């Protein structure tokens, strides 16, 4: 039996690593976000309606404050890895993630930012409930929130593909891969073979749509998460989306916890 404490700690460590990587990327990009740069808040903030929220964000995204915030996020992310989480640490990271997504009109790097927010929300929920005296149930609900949202992300992605004939017949896959980081697929790529593209498309969309099978047993959870890791590594290979690997990896302990919880409640 996998201990719940181990899965909580794994969530903290993986979330911390994910935030360290994101924080370092943000820090490297700080120059093009300054007041006289293309991605300045003066430009990006035009979508935010006037009011106290805008004034607060004006202060937060002023160059010196913004740089201090980025350094604070790096320190708190490292704290998650080394020391674990607390209500104060997670709350600051959670609020900072919201502010960052406001600046980037929803997300800087697509779904990885939203999944990071999901994991932080689950951890924040756990600590709030701990503060209210709910004991072990606190982390059960926090991890449950993460597991539910991570599973839903896969199911919806697979279901949407299933509804599209281009994915069912395999023609969508090479077109999709042609938009990759390194340019179109080579002429003789294996993924341009119709039967390979069709088999690969059906394999991944079936795995996504049936991801709830992970909750049947710990073994199935480990298998589903292993396939998920392989999938995200392929996305990284073709599209350079390293954040997707770490954002979803941070949700895997919660999914494994879900299979443990189901096993305990059905025996």
* Total count of helical runs of at least 4 residues: 13
Work out the helicity level.
Answer: over 70%
User: What does the average pLDDT come to?
Assistant: 91
Rg from Cα: 20 Å
Could you explain the architecture of this structure?
- This protein has helices spanning 4-28, 41-44, 52-60, 63-82, 87-103, 111-131, 137-162, 165-168, 172-177, 194-209, 218-239, 242-249, 252-265.
- The chain has one domain (4-265).
- The chain is mostly helical and 267 residues long.
Could you provide a short overview of the structure?
This protein has helices at residues 4-28, 41-44, 52-60, 63-82, 87-103, 111-131, 137-162, 165-168, 172-177, 194-209, 218-239, 242-249, 252-265. By secondary structure, the chain is mainly alpha-helical.
Topology at a glance:
Layout: H1 4-28, H2 41-44, H3 52-60, H4 63-82, H5 87-103, H6 111-131, H7 137-162, H8 165-168, H9 172-177, H10 194-209, H11 218-239, H12 242-249, H13 252-265
Could you name the key traits of this structure?
72% helix, 267 residues, mainly alpha, single chain, 13 helices
């Amino acid at each position: 039996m996998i201990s719940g404490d181990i899965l909580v700690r794994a969530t903290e460590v993986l979330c911390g690593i994910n935030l360290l990587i994101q924080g370092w990327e943000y820090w490297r990009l700080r120059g093009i976000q300054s007041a006289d740069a293309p991605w300045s808040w003066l430009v990006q903030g035009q979508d935010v309606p006037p009011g106290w929220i805008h004034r607060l964000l004006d202060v937060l995204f002023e160059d010196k404050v913004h740089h201090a915030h980025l350094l604070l996020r790096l320190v708190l992310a490292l704290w998650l890895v080394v020391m674990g989480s607390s209500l104060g640490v997670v709350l600051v990271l959670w609020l900072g993630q919201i502010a960052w997504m406001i600046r980037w009109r929803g997300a800087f790097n697509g779904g990885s930012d939203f999944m990071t927010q999901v994991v932080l929300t689950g951890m924040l929920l756990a600590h709030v409930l701990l503060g209210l005296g709910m004991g072990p149930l606190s982390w059960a609900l926090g991890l449950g929130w993460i597991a539910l949202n991570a599973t839903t992300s896969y199911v919806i992605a697979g279901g949407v593909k299933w509804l599209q004939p281009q994915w069912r017949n395999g023609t969508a896959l090479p077109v999709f891969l042609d938009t990759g980081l390194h340019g179109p697929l080579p002429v003789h790529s294996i993924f341009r073979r119709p039967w390979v593209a069709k088999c690969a498309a059906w394999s991944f969309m079936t795995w996504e749509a049936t991801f709830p099978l992970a909750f049947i047993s710990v073994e199935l959870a480990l298998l589903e998460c292993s396939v998920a890791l392989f999938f995200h590594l392929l996305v990284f290979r073709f599209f350079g989306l390293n954040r997707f690997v770490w954002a979803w990896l941070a949700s895997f302990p919660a999914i494994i916890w879900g299979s443990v919880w189901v096993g305990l409640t059905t025996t």
